[in-house]
Amino acid sequence: MKKLLLLLGLAAFTATIASAQMLINGAGATFPFPIYSKWFNEYAKVDPSVRFNYQSIGSGGGQKQILSETVDFGASDGPMSDENLAKAPRALWHIPTVAGADVISYNLPGNPKLKLDGPTVADVFLGKITNWNDPRIAGQNKGVSLPNQDIIVVHRSDGSGTTYIFTDYLSSVSPEWASKVGKNTSVEWPVGLGGKGNEGVSGQIKQAPGAMGYIELAYAKQNKLPYADMKNSSGNYISPSIDSVTAALATAKIPDDFRFSMVNPPGPEAYPIAGTTWLLVYAQQKDAAKGKKLVEFLKWAYTDGEKMASSLDYAPLPENVQARVLKRIGEIKY
Questions:
Q1: Which stretch of DSSP H or E encloses residue 237?
Q2: Dist CA 312 CA 325 (whole Å)
Q3: If DSSP states are collapsed to H, E and C, what string results for 166-198?
Q4: Where are the beta strands (DSSP E) in 70-159?
């Protein structure tokens, strides 16, 4: 009986603690989901009074939900357009968190390490290059046995910051892509199959022999998928890594509103398909208690959280940028 009463007491205590927790809701990008999940789990040990509920629904969904204020913060890998920002009920700020790489992943016999350049990738996604043994692919991969096999193009079906980074890159290396398709979180794809989220595209590539698609580096590693070295603006084939993304980030010109692109940057060691990801936060928080907790979390993320980035294949922001972002976070009012 005593044991039963003790168990009931513990259950009631646990329920009381859970009900006392403040829930902060966020939604958006799948690109940073691995690092955000890590941050939220670790922060629960720092401040058990708050719990973060983050829905990995894609950058387009994150932008929509923060604009409608159905979440406390949004997340996007593509900066919001001036037109979208104008729809916000009050000032909505971009808070950059980490940088990462989009990789070109594929499913081929033996999964050889490939080299590709931007114009070739653009023509694959335009539907102009359709076979794996096309001379433009074979010419960059001497000694690699490429099959006489159709390329199955895989892209995102949802609004996606990973897509924004990828189409921003393709627009920078292919005038035809820039004029016919352009860059956005969601575009009219000329060819291919759609997958929802980085998870969905990874799954499609894994299941479809001959597939080629773009995913975030962490997802390629988690799913043990191969990915290509990409030719950068200096003419070097560069493998995506923390160092090569950091090299790309070092060249970025970051304005006061923190909306910037870092695709196809200068620099011999820079990986060309890289981008940062942002949290979307209102400058004036409607809920004072939640606003206070959100600011406390953001300050933690830019000190302790950034140190965890490299373990999950993200590049932390340079210290001078971290300092600028921390100053901006300190200006959030609640």
A1: strand 237-238
A2: 21
A3: HHHHHHHHCHHHHHHCCCCCCCCCCCCEEECHH
A4: 73-76, 92-106, 115-116, 152-156
Upper half-sphere CA count for residue 110 (Cβ side, 13 Å): 7
Tokens 């890159």 — which residue? 169
Average pLDDT score over the chain? 93
Tell me if the pTM is above 0.90: no
- From the list 118, 78, 60, 101, the residue with the least C-alpha distance to 216 is 101
Q: How far apart are CA 209 and CA 149, in angstroms?
A: 9
Give me the residues paired with residue 54 across strands. Answer: 26
Other C-beta atoms lying within 10 Å of the C-beta of residue 70:
11
**Residue 12, pLDDT above cutoff 50:** no
- For residue 21, CA distances in Å to 45, 177, 235, 300 come to 13, 49, 53, 18
Domains of the chain: 2-100+276-329 (3.40.190.10), 101-274 (3.40.190.10)
Q: Characterize the bridge pairing of strands 92-106 and 315-316.
A: antiparallel
pLDDT for 330 equals 97
Task: Give, for 121, the enclosing helix (H) or strand (E).
Answer: helix 118-125
Residue 237 has pLDDT above 70, yes or no: yes
pLDDT at 162 over 70: yes
